[in-house]
Amino acid sequence: MIKLLLLFILSLTVSSPVFSLSDLQKKEMQKTIKNMQALMPRRIDAMTTVTWTWMEGNTWYINTTMNTGGRTLGERQRDFLRKYVRDQYCRPPYEYLDAGLVITNQYYDENNNFLFAASASKRICGR
After folding, report:
1. What is the dihedral of CA 88, 21, 12, 105, to 10 degrees?
2. Confidence (pTM)
């Protein structure tokens, strides 16, 4: 996840004072996503694999599979992952979040059952 995040951060070279992503920002995001897709699926750790990513409008989606061993995730585990997503994406550079980018991690279990989603956005980041 750190390497994927680094690819994203390194691709951010433009700032925009407007409230929606500019065409140039969208183009940069698509370039980043295409580079990430070339590495998919990407095993992050023993439990976690990023399986796909794409962008719709101003929302960047990241699908992640977690090997739960057939167990359900409790609220404590979901809260931990929500905080992790905030910590990863709610930091500089802010120009994409400030322009309206929403980053949504969708988590699935090893049987492809949806578990939950965690997001970062200007509002969630307190900007």
Report:
1. 30
2. 0.80
Q: How many CB atoms lie within 10 A of CB 67?
A: 12
Reduce the DSSP state of residue 126 to 3 states and report it. coil
**Tokens, residue 99:** 């322009």
Spatial strand order of the sheet with 59-66 comes to 42-43, 48-56, 59-66, 102-109, 114-120
| Placement of tokens 């990241």 in the chain | 62
What are 63-120's pLDDT values in tens digits? 999 999 999 999 999 999 999 999 999 999 899 999 999 999 999 999 999 999 999 9
**Any residues with CB less than 8 A from the CB of 11 and at least 6 apart, and which?**
28, 29, 31, 32, 35
3-class secondary structure, 110: coil
